[in-house]
Design brief:
alpha/beta, Arc Repressor Mutant, subunit A, Rossmann fold, six-stranded parallel β-sheet, three-stranded antiparallel β-sheet, 38% helix
């Protein structure tokens, strides 16, 4: 069984039982306890479980989302690597959309000089970062401001996206599995991200290695709905091969 599949099944057990012991999971999946501990570490890093002595407990669905300021300082090397790859697809006169993820913010920070670029976003951080960038026109969707993610959501945000002819969408998420697709901890965020993907001619899913094998609360879209997946160099080869088959 692939590690990403095993972690997805561990999450199913956690959601059903609320907790699980390392020894029990080791026996059920026929892997070493050290392997299970690594799985739980990955899930804990994603904010979905809390490690305990000998196991882990599920974090309630309304709790796992961590503040933007906290997430923006985590896994910076991976996020910058993804951003450097992503900006290579941005061309003069493009109209792009960036979501409110910390990875998309790194795209804004790493944008090279691009002539007549239009950036549509629901992210406060992206607006602030690009406000004085020469050659870049920034359009904010508006909507209901979520303080925890510093993003705009709701009907107004979704409607605004349909006003523009968007070439490329750059989106991230909280978890990715082949079975459940790209998922997010907040339903409103997931809905806006789905709208971004659907209105764009080409969509890019930005995923660092910690998010593979994790299923969050709300589905954004299936992996096959995206045109490209951009990840960092630390993603397991087995994950990459499985995604290529989608």
């Amino acid at each position: 069984m692939l590690a990403v599949t095993r972690r997805s099944k561990i999450m199913e057990i956690m959601m059903e039982q609320g907790s699980a012991r390392v020894a029990d999971l080791s026996q059920q999946f026929q892997v070493t306890e050290e392997t299970i501990r690594r799985d739980l570490e990955r899930l804990a890093n994603g904010g979905y479980v809390q490690k305990t002595y000998g196991g882990a407990v599920l974090i309630a669905a309304d709790q796992p989302e961590r503040p933007f300021a906290t997430r923006s300082t985590e896994r910076m090397e991976e996020k910058r690597a993804i951003a450097r790859l992503a900006v290579q697809f941005i061309e003069p006169e493009d109209v792009i959309v960036l979501d409110a993820s910390t990875t998309a913010l790194q795209i804004a920070k790493n944008l090279p000089p691009v002539e007549e670029l239009v950036v549509v976003t629901n992210a406060v951080g992206v607006v602030t970062e690009l406000a004085h960038r020469p050659g870049v026109r920034v359009l904010c969707t508006g909507g209901i401001l979520r303080g925890k993610s510093l993003s705009f959501v709701g009907p107004l945000a979704g409607q605004a996206l349909h006003k523009y002819n968007i070439n490329k969408a750059f989106l991230s998420c909280q978890g990715v599995t082949v079975e459940d697709g790209a998922t997010d901890v907040n339903e409103q965020e997931a809905k806006v991200k789905n709208e971004m993907m659907r209105v764009a001619r080409e969509s890019f899913l930005l995923v660092d290695n910690s998010k593979f094998g994790v299923t969050a609360f709300a589905t954004i879209a299936q992996v096959s709905d995206f045109d490209r997946v951009i990840t960092d160099g630390r993603s397991p080869a087995e994950v990459i091969e499985k995604l290529k088959g989608v």
